[in-house]
Queue: 3 jobs
Job 1
Amino acid sequence: MPLFQAHVPTGRYTAQQRTAMVEAFTESLVDGFALPVDDRFVVISEHGPDGLFIHPTYGDMKRSDRAIIVTVVIPETRPRSEKRKFLEAIVKRLGEKVGVAPDDVFITLIPIPRENFSFGRGFSPFDPGD
């Protein structure tokens, strides 16, 4: 049920590499949160130099022109230990599948109440109702 939004620089990743990113994100869900493989909701957006601003050295990093921003909306119920494992899995899988350097992956997790997720039909299977 997490939603990935990956913001990548235009022209730095091929269509095959973007597809491999989706696979990396999916595998990181399995590794970090023990979720099923079919729990796949990913948006990948390309941005030109006037639409993606990532400081090359902030946080003592050495980012390249392939640096990406990944935002993941997750249920607020996940413990910190699982979130750490999940973050590590994202970086590991992106490195293995796409060759993204660890310093090139900026991640933000956004926890929200489970009842705010709807898979379709306008209802949430997690909303207990009033």
Job 2
Amino acid sequence: LVHVPRGSFAEPEEIAAAVAFLASDDASFVTAANFLVDGGISGAYVTAL
């Protein structure tokens, strides 16, 4: 958890909310997009080369 900026893992309901949004009419104009539902870890965790 030290590497997760949010400090906790996602709850199933949080993942479901992202899926529900993408399946809803509110996302009807969203095309070819990547949604990272990872609490910010993909942008914060950097490995040495």
Job 3
Amino acid sequence: MKTAAIHTLGCKVNTYDSEAILELLKKDSYNIVEFEEKADVYIVNTCTVTNLGDKKSRQMIRRAKKNNPGAFVIVCGCYAQTASEELEGMPEVDLILGNDDRHRIVEFIEEGMASQTPFNAVKDIMKVREYEELHIDHLSGHERGFIKIQEGCDQFCTYCIIPYARGPVRSRKPENIIEEGKRLIANGNRELVLTGINISAYGKDLKNAGDLAALVEMLDGLDGLERIRLGSLEPSYLTQEVVDRMKGSEKLCDHFHVSLQSGAVQTLKDMKRRYAKEEYALVLERIRMAFPHAGITTDVMVGFPGETEEDFLETMDFVKTMAFSQIHVFKYSPRKGTPAAAMDLQIPEAIKQERSEKLIALGNELKKDFEDRFFGEISEVLVEQEIHDKKNTYQGHTTNYLLLPVSSATDIRGHLVQVRISRDVEGRLIGESL
């Protein structure tokens, strides 16, 4: 039997794309094995958000060929899309695919194996105008089902390579999203997570499709679905009217990931983020008025070119004032071809590291403050996985994205469990089953 393995780097969109690719291979009678095992075909679904993503992608390409020197190695994803000529110089690579035409992967494998000639199938992603319809019926190892609802981004922030890697905004037809949602629910997923490169832009390229809030309203009516969770949102989308419509959903989780990047006025301008910090603060106020227990998470970048110590302290103050439940901190990484990479006043790595550590420490404080608000409260956890190094212990998330371990003598994965929120002897948050 033919065998294939895949390694996925980067975001949840890549996770979805990889699962869709695996389903195509399964339909062509491939047996899917672990990446460390010997396989006939290896696929590396790459990330290029940072230089580290590029480096890890190259490492996994070499590892694939080391696992089986005779294997057919495919590289797809964002690094493949933006650096296909660089990948042509790697002797380990047999097929470069990029971020389109993934639905033809079986055809490309057959042609490549027959010709024994490396092939670059990457096309100009900026000219792609149609959403590539890929399907999944079940997301392996996940109790939450991820549905990709759109592709591409038109923001063009000065630091970001992703619009060049993913192309313009292409929204998926709502009827296809609904049908996939039904399949995932039928296969046991009780929560659906809507993901994409910029889901706030959903529907803007479709006639009469409605926006993201309209899609949530449609999904609300699916039988057997308990929760809808949103991926990363742009603050400019979250107008009062949109938040009011979302408040009307019976199944939408009170967890909102609202991208920030910086809390400094000048840095936001240099990044070409499309909001002022005052507007961002108003968005969070709207959310909290509509969803009093909301977990609000965000991304913050440190070390953007020209970021002064005063700018960084301004960001620290703003992050503290916004009282996020969790923050993802990352260091600026220059991406070739972006405006920020050519800017003066690039920040030394040592300063980036120092600022990163300070912001992470603040994030940990804010996370604990948020958790403390719910100590002793009763909440509901969707149990997602077993904790393998702890006997009879599982874990899952509340609607507002608190991650809670839950003890049980029976397998409760996929169950919604009522718990009282507490802490263990080491101070870590836990859920006590009721």
